[in-house]
UniProtKB/TrEMBL annotation:
<keyword id="KW-0812">Transmembrane</keyword>
<protein>
    <submittedName>
        <fullName>Uncharacterized protein</fullName>
    </submittedName>
</protein>
<dbReference type="Pfam" id="PF19382">
    <property type="entry name" value="DUF5957"/>
</dbReference>
<keyword id="KW-0472">Membrane</keyword>
<dbReference type="InterPro" id="IPR046001">
    <property type="entry name" value="DUF5957"/>
</dbReference>
<keyword id="KW-1133">Transmembrane helix</keyword>
<feature type="transmembrane region" description="Helical">
    <location>
        <begin position="7"/>
        <end position="29"/>
    </location>
</feature>
<feature type="transmembrane region" description="Helical">
    <location>
        <begin position="41"/>
        <end position="59"/>
    </location>
</feature>
Length: 65
């Protein structure tokens, strides 16, 4: 159950992180090159990566305690 919850938190958190990072990249693209830039599917990529990384961190913290 904790593993499933960690995956869900990773997906949601990664998606939010991807949206923020994509906006940040877009703003800097406008500032530097006067053209909005960004990575098209960045929120999906970051949610996938965080869905893998967050449970790994959770399992490592369980092993320590």
């Amino acid at each position: 159950m904790r593993l499933f919850l960690a995956v869900i938190v990773g997906i949601i958190g990664g998606f939010i992180l991807g949206i923020a990072l994509s906006s940040f990249i877009g703003i800097w693209g406008v500032v530097l090159w006067n053209e909005p830039m960004g990575i098209k599917f960045l929120p999906y990529f970051t949610s996938f990566i965080c869905a893998i990384i967050v449970p790994m961190i959770e399992l490592k913290s369980q092993i320590r305690h």
